[in-house]
Amino acid sequence: MTATLTPTKPPARAVPRRLTQRAGPADRVFRGVARSAGMTVLLMMLLVGGFLLIRGREALDVAGWSFFTTEEWAPEGGRFGIAAVLTGTLLIAAVAIAIAVPLSVGTALYISEYAPARLKRFLVNLVDLMAAVPSVVYGLWGAFLMEGSVLGVARWIATWIGYGPFAVDGVDPADPLASETVYTRSTLLAGLVVAMMVTPIASSVMREVFSQAPAGEREGAYALGATRWGMIRAVVLPYGKGGMIGGTMLGLGRALGETIGVVMTISLVYQIQPHILRAGASSISALIANRYGDASPFAVSALMAAGLTLFLLTLVVNFAASSIIARSRSGAEGDA
Amino acid sequence: MTVIPERPTGADTRPHRRTRQRGDAFAVSGAAVASLSATALLFTYLTPFTGTVGFIVVAYLLFLACYTLLTWLDEPGPAVRDRLAGVAVHSLGFLVLAALIVVVGYTFAQGAKALPHANFFTADMSVTGPLDPLTMGGILHAAIGTLEQMAISLAITVPLGITCAVYLSEVRGPGTRFVRTVVEAMTALPSIVAGLFVFAAIVLVLGFGKSGFAASLAISVMMLPIIIRAADVVLRLVPRTLREASLTLGASQWRTVWHVVLPTARSGLTTSVILGAARGIGETSPVLLTAGFTKTLNADPFSGPQISLPLATYEFTRSPEPSMVARGFGTAAALMALVLVLFVIARLIGGRGAGHLSARQARARTRSSARDARRFTRDGDTLVQPTVAAPPPTTTPPPPGASP
């Protein structure tokens, strides 16, 4: 009110009034508590990362670059490396992704485009439930139920394709009396089990992006005479490309770090095993689960180095995935 | 004079807009019958094929071929492709659904051998060997272990996680971005590496020994980023207008968070905690490294090894004895039932956006605001008179979760 009276001197330029906020004592305590919780979490997380880094460095310093080229794992003898287990991890993840991508794209398309409206919520819940099923249950499924079926499929593939990663050495597919145990506990079986855990994660990201495809463009496609599949190919899939890539990578991050389902379904070998149908596979997580009992501090340090490698791998994959997903979503907001 | 036009009776005059014709259902069922019978013929008389998987694959391929042929007879090319894509998408969706049902159903079916015995839930394995029948021994020790480890993990993660989420979305500050990035990075931490960290730091360096508490710490390290991220998303969904309304009424930031933001996001926060717990309860690998293995009941989480349900499942099924494997499946079924219950509770509570109430909650809100109205009028009409200055907000804060 006093401002309407003639001011002594008009300000040279308009400066926004500075708003100061004086917090009461309760507010200050509240902010302090919240901030300290944030800092505690930060500290915990940095502690985990830092501890892994420091303890892992001991082993890395001893092994040097041979850590990435050595296949065997004998930390006491000084010969240890992750060439075999890293290859195995990537192979299992590749098999899992190869199985999970068609499944999750199909499920996501079914839920967002084909399913009747009243079933949608139920189906979304089922897919979420699938993500909540403990991995040990998937491991049981793979180790006890699927082993027989996978064996037959693996023998069929080995017989009719039989080269490259599908080759199985040491057994003649034409010999009906040959032992079938060479086809069990393989990379394929572990990949199948991991695919079941990856599918719901990838599928829920994809479904979300598919259902955000702009209604105007869908109707435009229909108005031009497109069939439903024509509309999906012309509108939904191009629009959801970012979500499909991001969801797949998010699943890949999970597939790389999966432990117990892999431990229950493979027999661990410490050599590069490029044949995905052959018994014997390897993964970093299975290595840690099998060898943590080697109580010598140096062995644990070596395991830490392997764990650190795995963590960095999943970290890169996850950050790439979340940035791709975020970009595809920000596009969605722009169009709306 | 207005005359209501008479509706034409009889034939429906609307144009025919159905995209799915009845002929399509005939084509699907006809193709299914044709492919099944042809495959049966192939497998029994014509070829030496055997095996269930082979039968399903051959039948499915034949079905696709028959169906394409049938639609091709009376539809143009794009429509045939549309029908084929529809069938493919449907079958992929049903395949995933069937796989889920098989995974859950198989666990319960195999566990059915062990579950009917009452001792399975009331005894531990201290006096039971691998060769003893299912009428001896049980999983009481693992159930107790799971309950205690989850209780400790929740006691750590819920207050810390939700306060941290409040810090990220409400308090903010120079460090918020960094904390959020680090938390996001930590969701990528493989659970086995979390277990390895606790094993190396707590069990080996601090000499704490393998115990239920160490397992709880490992589970907490894994659950904390999940809960923080989910809670952060939920808190950011609370409408800005609610916060601003509360601040305009003179409430302090602390009271705004406590009485407006948190109650509005309550269902979402509960869901994120329960889903985090469902993830944590089924984690085997961090527990494998940190909890140790025991056959006897150990109710003290701070000393001595303590087993949990997923770990017991893993250990039981490594044995070649059928009774031990049956116990393993029984344990898995119990674990699965626990996860199912948690999941259903989470979906009943949550699944609604911030501020959306169920019918029961809406009735409770109406009752409480009616109660407030009575209280205000009884106390002398001060609040409903606009001319009287409102009392300072600290004495009469807005009712908890006042509806927008």
Please give a structural write-up:
The complex is a heterodimer of chains A (336) and B (404). Chain A is mainly alpha-helical and 336 residues long. Chain A is 68% helix and 1% strand. Chain A has one domain: Orthogonal Bundle (MetI-like fold). In chain A, a hairpin with a 4-residue loop joins strand 1 and strand 2. Chain A is flat and about 105 Å long. Chain B has 404 residues and is mainly α. Chain B has two domains: 89 residues, no CATH class; 209 residues, MetI-like (MetI-like fold). In chain B, helix 5 packs parallel to helix 8 and helix 6 packs across helix 8. Chain B starts with 21 loop residues before the first helix and ends in a 26-residue tail after the last helix. In chain B, 40% of the residues are buried. The C terminus of chain B is likely disordered. Chain B: Belongs to the binding-protein-dependent transport system permease family. CysTW subfamily. Chain B: InterPro entries: MetI-like, MetI-like_sf, Phosphate_PstA, Phosphate_transprt_permease. Chain B: It is found in: Cell membrane.
